Amino acid sequence: MNTKSHTSTPAYQQLKDHVLQMIEAEHWRGGDMIPPEEQLAKEFGLSRMTVNRAMRELVTERVLMRIRGSGTFVADTRYQSTLIEVRSIADEIKSRGDTYSSKLLLLQRTDDIAMIQTLGLPPDGPAYHSRIVHFENDVPIQLEDRHVNGLVFPGYINQSFENETPNEYMTGIAPAQGVEYWVTARQAPAFVRQALKMAIGEPCLVLHRRTRVRGTVATDVVLWHPASRYQLSGKF
Amino acid sequence: MNTKSHTSTPAYQQLKDHVLQMIEAEHWRGGDMIPPEEQLAKEFGLSRMTVNRAMRELVTERVLMRIRGSGTFVADTRYQSTLIEVRSIADEIKSRGDTYSSKLLLLQRTDDIAMIQTLGLPPDGPAYHSRIVHFENDVPIQLEDRHVNGLVFPGYINQSFENETPNEYMTGIAPAQGVEYWVTARQAPAFVRQALKMAIGEPCLVLHRRTRVRGTVATDVVLWHPASRYQLSGKF
DNA sequence: CAGTGGTCTAGACCACTGT
DNA sequence: CAGTGGTCTAGACCACTGC
Fold first, then answer.
1. 3-class SS at A114?
2. Nearest-CA distance B109 → chain A (Å)
3. Which one of A229, B49, B168, B226 has the largest count of C-beta atoms within 10 Å of its C-beta?
4. Rounded distance, CA A62 to CA A56, Å?
5. For helices A48-60 and A11-24, what crossing angle results, to 10°?
6. E strand residue ranges, B110-138
7. How confident is the model at residue A65, as a pLDDT?
8. Which segment of A184-188, B9-13, B86-90 scores lowest on mean pLDDT?
C-alpha cells in the first residue's frame, strides 16, 4: 500500500534521478526505448501517476521523448542550440590576447526570499550574493550579479576571487549538470550603469543563467554587458 | 463523477489557458494571489490533482509562483520565449497557443555589393533581399531582414510567404549545414522602430545569423526584436 | 487485438504558513 | 489552529500504434 518515502526526496524525483543515471551510465542510449510506465510502477512500487509525472517532466527537460501508443525513448543527442559557453570570461579575454582584471564589489549572505526559493533552500538556508566587474584592458565589460546556493558551495563566502573567477571556483567544486539561460536586451539600471561606466540610454545585453547540480539550482547569475562592448556569438 | 471533457483540449490545459487569460486581461496582476487549488477544483469541476498539474506547469513556465502554506501568486516578471534554435518563429508562436501572422514589407533582387560578397556570389550573381514582420497576436515581435543566395534558392524571389515563412521555405529546399550567429543589443534604427512600433529609446535584442549550405553562405538574416517583447532562452 | 501513453478522479497524508 | 500546497494512490477510460 502506502510506502511513502519519507526520505524527503519525492518518489518522482528519485525515479527521474534513476533514469538520468541509467542514461549517464549508458545503459540506456539515445533512441533506446525505456520500460513502460506500468513496469516502472511495479519495479519501484509506485502508482502509474507518479511514474507518469516523472516521465512527463523528463520530456519537458528534453531527456526523453514519448510516442503515444508506442513507448518512451531516450532523446537523441544533446545539442546544439547554443554554446553560450560555460567558459570563463577570464579565459575568453585572455584568449584574445587582452589583459583581464576584476573587482569585487560585494560578497555577502543574503536573505532575499525569492532568490532563496529559486535556489531551493529553506527560508534561512544559506544563500550568498556577489557582484564582480570584469575588465578587458581595464575597460569594464561585464557586471556579474550572482546568487549562490550555500549548501552546494559552502565555502563561497570566504573566497577572494582574486586569482579565480566565481565561475572557475564553482566548476572546480561541482561541475554544472544542467544550464538554463535567457538572453535579453535591457536599459541599464543605475547600479549597472555606474559599475560599467556606461552612457545613459545605452542598452545592455543581459545573459541570465541558472545552473543545476544534482537537480537543484546551484547558482543564478545575471551578466550585464554594455551593448557597445560585447556580443555573444557561436556556431553549430 | 466523470465529466470528461471530450472537447479534445485537456482540462488542465483549459485551466492553464484560463489563468493566462485572467493575467492577460489584468484581472490578476503580478504579485496577486490566485484562488487556492481546492476552490479552482470546485469552480471548474475538476479534481485537485488536475488543478495541481495546471498550476505546476505554469510555475515551470514562470507564469506563477507558489509558496507552500501560503498560496499561489502571479509571477512579477515578464515574458517567456525561445531559443536560438533553427526553429521557425511561426511554430514557436503557435506552440505558445498564440496567433501567428506576418507582413511582407519588401522582396526584391539586390545589388548590395558587400552582401553579394558575403554570399560568395559573382558581382552580378543573384542575391535577394526580403523584410518581413512577424506578429504574435497582432503584436509585432520580430523584424526579419534577410539576404538570400539566389544560386542556392533560385525560387526565393517568387514566394509570397503567406503560408510559409522564409525559414520554412528554405529548410524545405536545402537544410542548413552550418550556422553562425551573433547576439547583440542595439538601439533600434528608424526602419526597425517603425516596423515594430517601438518606443523611442527602447533597446532591441538582435540576432544575426548566417547559414551555410555546401560551404557557401546560403542566407544572412538579421532578426530584430523589441527588448520588452522578446527574449531568447534555452537549456543544455 | 494487446500494448502504450494521456488524462482524470476522489480520496489521503504530510509539511509548511500565518494567525 | 485552519488554510494552503506537495505528494501519492489505485483505480478508470480513452486514443493511438503496430501487429
1. helix
2. 28
3. B226
4. 10
5. 50
6. 127-136
7. 83
8. B86-90
Contact B133, B195 (CB under 8 A): yes
Give the torsion sign (CA, A93, A94, A100, A106).
Answer: positive
| Single-letter amino acid, residue A231 | Q
The DSSP result for B12-77, as a single string, is HHHHHHHHHHHHHTTSS-TT-EE--HHHHHHHHT--HHHHHHHHHHHHHTTSEEEETTTEEEE-S-
The chain A residues in contact with chain B (CB within 8 A) are 49, 60-62, 78-82, 84, 114, 117, 178-187, 201, 203-206, 225, 227, 231-236
pLDDT of residue B88: 65
Task: Using pLDDT thresholds of 50, 70 and 90, give the confidence band for residue B235.
Answer: low
When pLDDT is cut at 50, 70 and 90, the band that residue B129 belongs to is very high
In whole angstroms, give the CA distance from residue A23 to residue A124: 35
The pLDDT value recorded for residue B187 is 80
Cβ A18 vs Cβ A35: under 8 Å: no
- Across the interface, of A62, A117, A183, the residue whose CB is closest to B232 is A183
- Predicted pLDDT of residue A57: 87
Q: Could you tell me the CA-to-CA distances from A49 to A38, A70, A89, B49 in Å, in that order?
A: 10, 18, 44, 10
Residue of A nearest to B52 (CA): A53
- Does the beta-carbon distance from A180 to B60 stay under 8 Å? no
Residue in B65, B182, B231 closest to A182 by CB: B231
User: Distance between CA B14 and CA B8 in Å, rounded?
Assistant: 10
Q: Among chain A residues 187 through 216, which have CB within 7 angstroms of nucleic chain C?
A: none
Amino acid A221 reads V
The pLDDT value given to residue B86: 46
When pLDDT is averaged across residues B169-183 and rounded to a whole number, the result is: 71
For residue A84, the model assigns a pLDDT of 43
Give the type of residue at A102.
S
Q: Which nucleotide has the least CA–C1' distance to A10?
A: D7
**Residue A45: predicted pLDDT:** 93
Q: Which residues of B63-87 are buried (b: 16+ CB within 10 A; e: fewer)?
A: bbbbeeeeebbbbeeeeebbbbbbe
